[in-house]
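User: Can you fold this complex?
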Amino acid sequence: NAGVTQTPKFRILKIGQSMTLQCAQDMNHNYMYWYRQDPGMGLKLIYYSVGAGITDKGEVPNGYNVSRSTTEDFPLRLELAAPSQTSVYFCASSYSGLAGGLGSPSEQFFGPGTRLTVL
Amino acid sequence: QKEVEQNSGPLSVPEGAIASLNCTYSDRGSQSFFWYRQYSGKSPELIMSIYSNGDKEDGRFTAQLNKASQYVSLLIRDSQPSDSATYLCAVTQTGTASKLTFGTGTRLQVTL
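Assistant: Here's the predicted assembly.
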């Protein structure tokens, strides 16, 4: 059971290049999330998904796209990389939105992260 | 914009002492509260969750919640050097069962 995996671990992009950050989980979780974390800052939600075929924007979606064709995979696409997208990207997953009582989410489990630099 | 506020620190405590980490939140509709530990260069790791007012203990960790005061805290007893990390407070957003708002974290240093 690998949990949440992310590839690549590190990447340097030039301005205007595109790339896809991969995320996969083997825990049969239906909820998946993408966050970015800038130095000294908390985590900001980019996109999330409540199941295959269903995605929605988070707090900072501009410049990113996602898709969710399977329960296991939730890739994040950067189309035209900009220096402002230099950050550490974390993928997370959770079993469902309900745990510990009505209206309580279950715990989110994080992948190891991708450190992205755009020059 | 709903916020979660934490003192950035660093909070320095001697080995064996109690570390007290605090968090306030602005969203009165928040229902669930979490503490994550994040070592430098690593991903966040969930260490405590709390859903109702009062205290919840797990080993050396105690989470305390006061919804009326919109305040959640984490106590670490018998602090160890391995507890040195950044601790992130996270709360659920009103109207959603799964979206979290994170604080910026408090850096804890446990000194020998």
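Residues 41 and 61 of chain B are 23 Å apart (CA to CA). The two ends of chain B are 40 Å apart (CA to CA).
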